[in-house]
Specification:
The complex is a heterodimer. Chain A is mainly α. Chain A is built from five helices and no strands. In chain A, α2 packs antiparallel against α3 and α3 packs antiparallel against α4. The longest helix of chain B is centred in the C-terminal third of the chain and has 31 residues. Classes of the chains: A mainly alpha, B mainly alpha. Chains A and B meet through α1, α2, α3, α4 and α5 of A and α1, α2, α3 and α4 of B.
Amino acid sequence: MENFMQDFLQYALYAKLIIVGIYIIHTLRGPTIWDRMMGLNLIATKTIMIFIVFSSLEGITFLLDLAIMFALFGFLGTVFLCLFLAKHKLGRVRSTAKSTSVKEGSDA
Amino acid sequence: MNFAIEPIDISIEPIYADIVPIAGEIVSASLSLHPAVLVISNIIIGIGLFFMIMGAIGIFRFDDFYKRILLAAKVDTVGMITLVIGLGVRHGAMGDVFFTLKLVFIVVIILILNPLVAHVMARSAYASGYKLTGTIQEADDVGAEDETDLSKSIM
């Protein structure tokens, strides 16, 4: 039990890596382009968490600065990609196809 | 003739030793942590892990983008807050104030940026014509009318 408590951060790191795998599946499979964008944002946040846990495990403090940089640049990238997609209306065709398929599924 | 290279003394004086903590010190300090502190921090981190696993399952169970973005905005923030509180308890008990203050700085940034990103994504999806699906059918017509104005206001 003491060993489990000492090594709990490592198990938390492995669990976060498994969750990142689930989000990668969602990003590749997502029906609309917005789902892929949301998956990218979730993976970016999970990367920051992995940075924090790893820096606490290894005692490397400057990895936290890299985590701050990841947060800021991930925010900038997501915002400008969203502005680009909204300006050129790239999510329109897929979204209408998806909404009709959902309505048919709920009727059947 | 002796060509053997003399071993150079490469031991550098640790200039930043009082600023940047060395790895060995922290590892030795974590072994001397009080077990109650360890249990408390592990329980807090475990709560965050539970939330994140539930979120990863729930993303596959919801069928609409707006439900998924509502879920994703909350799960990530809760996971980050619990992780930072747990690690802050652990490193605060070690006396590592530098690490704890950096963690607090990161959680302040995440608390500002994460809901903002979710709002930007949902708003740009609505402005580019992603219809609201659900029991309220009038929302579709309202969205179709406001579509052009909202996309202009975003730009």
